[in-house]
Write a structure and sequence with these properties.
Elements (H helix, E strand, L loop, with lengths): L2 H8 L12 E3 L6 H13 L14 E6 L5 H8 L8 H4 L10 E3 L5 E3 L17 E6 L9 H17 L4 E4 L28 H10 L10
Helix pairs in contact: 5-6
């Protein structure tokens, strides 16, 4: 394990205590280069100059991975630099990642501390925790994943002032709001994950939290 990965997780001992759902720690590489690329992204894409790549979570974005395993997702996120994908590398060399990944059986894995920056949603990374779910259009998310997302979001809501929960496919609805921080108005990618059916069901299960509606 990289020194910086150990250091970052050591900064958040409370994250390992009194957890509501069971969360398996599976940290991706967090080294000096990833720190610098994250700071560069915050500055160049979100217009935020920071001394450390932390976020103050107010939003959760739910995704699907479009692959079939946690291992494949880990192998995708673990490299510091993004291989290929010119539609993304033009904006930054920083690899995509997410704080959490949920397997088909509902097992929750944590790839990064929940208040550390991850590149997962254009315009919103600076305030959003990402939850990836193993699945795709061909392999819809499971009932176990729905339950795990609900449990994880309830846990995160106890730690942070989470105001809203969205699907990745809904992120462009924030372009004309104060949430949106992206320096290039033309930097947009089309997304369809995880779909209206899953998100409407998930938000119905979270109705008692009185989250804000989508814009």
């Amino acid at each position: 394990m990289k020194f910086y990965t150990i250091l970052v997780f050591a900064l958040f001992p409370f994250a390992l205590l009194a957890q509501s759902p069971k969360i398996i720690q599976k940290p991706i590489t967090w080294d000096k280069e990833r720190v610098q690329l994250s700071l560069d992204y915050l500055k160049n894409r979100h217009g935020l100059i920071q001394s450390s790549p932390v976020i103050h979570p107010k939003m959760i974005v739910v995704h699907w991975t479009a692959n079939n395993s946690v291992k494949a997702t880990f192998n995708t996120f673990n490299p510091v630099r993004l291989p290929g994908r010119p539609e993304l590398t033009k904006a930054s060399a920083l690899n995509v990642s997410s704080q959490f990944v949920i397997d088909r059986d509902g097992t929750i894995y944590q790839f990064l501390p929940d208040s550390i920056f991850a590149r997962h949603t254009i315009g919103l990374n600076y305030c959003a925790i990402g939850i990836e779910n193993i699945g795709s259009r061909q392999n819809p998310l499971t009932a176990a994943q729905l339950k795990a997302n609900e449990e994880l979001i309830r846990y995160l809501r106890k730690k942070y002032p989470i105001e809203i929960v969205i699907g990745h496919h809904e992120y462009q609805r924030f372009k004309k709001t104060t949430w949106w921080k992206e320096t290039d108005p033309n930097y947009i990618t089309g997304k369809d994950d995880p779909g209206d059916k899953f998100m409407n069901t998930l938000r119905a299960h979270l109705q008692d939290l009185k989250l804000k509606p989508l814009p």
